[in-house]
Amino acid sequence: MTTLASRQPVTKPVDGLVGVAVVGCGYWGPNLLRNFFDTPGCRVVAACDLSEQRLEAMARRHPSLRATTSLDDVLDDPAVHAVAVATPVASHASLARRALEAGKHVLVEKPMTLSTAEAVALVELAETRGLQLMVDHTFVYTGAVRRIKQMIDSGELGKLYYYDSVRVNLGLIQHDVSVVWDLAAHDLAIMDHLIEQRPVGISAMSATHFPGGMADVAYITVQFEDNLIAHFHVNWLSPVKVRQVLIGGDRRMILYDDIEATEKVKVYDRGIRWNDDPIEARRETLVAYRLGDMYAPVLDQTEALRNECAHFIESVRAGTTPLTDGRAGLRTVQMLEAAERSMRNGGAMEPLG
After folding, report:
1. What are the boundaries of each domain within the chain?
2. Phi, psi of 132, deg, nearest 5
3. What is the mean pLDDT of the chain?
4. May I ask the CATH architecture of the domain 140-305+334-351?
5. Which of 25, 178, 196, 254 suits a disulfide with 215, CB 3.0-4.6 Å?
6. Residue 1 pLDDT > 90, yes or no?
């Protein structure tokens, strides 16, 4: 068997199709397999999992799939050019590193790693080997987030004042990571994508309500320069499921409700105008409220994971940087790790740089 040290980056096949293997067939792996099978320019080669039962279920669903419990079988296969890692978070760093060392492009489930040091190592390895490293920040590929990004970049919202996010539900309680790493990873990644400006500090408070468990409720505050502030509420103990983001600018404001079936994004032409002219201020109040119209833009309804898988394959084929590349994954891990430090230190502000 070929050793990791002797493996070289895999070249593209003559037919131009990118061979993909999915590692991990638990909760998210089957979704990746389904979408990769429907992605142009892609050939799904193999699925890998420690559970024979899971592999049998995948093989029944996809008869052409080669199922194996051995990661080495996947990494030694020259028909596999890219590996999607959909395993528990603690294994992300080691599995992604092995795949990169084997010359495979990598798509890894969020969060990319459990530490900044591990994330930095993966980014540097991918860049040194000339391989794509992409993180499964799925919400970035929704029609809603893509449309919001267009509005922010075009200046439609104006100068941003605040970013307020709530992601709460009853479960699924994780046993290997806290609610911050499980739920806030989504929202911090969305914010990182939408806002070009980089945060300067983060603080967090949390509570753990079960003996020996992880934090199940948390509140996170992210500070930017220029008076922009972001706040995140994540909770495994809510009686209702809420996924909402409020983004306020000096021109317009947005409500993004991911639970809403049709009008997921609503744009409000509303705001506050401050009158700082001393002469005019004598004739009218210092604060004037603007109450304009609301509209809901038309959104792309394509499944986010379908967009993401297609983007990954296109990035591999064209050699272009993915939207959620390794560095985006690194920035999210840095914020998560800093939030955990703040939680241990009673909510103290942790610098981000």
Report:
1. 4-109, 140-305+334-351
2. -80, 135
3. 92
4. 2-Layer Sandwich (3.30)
5. 178
6. no
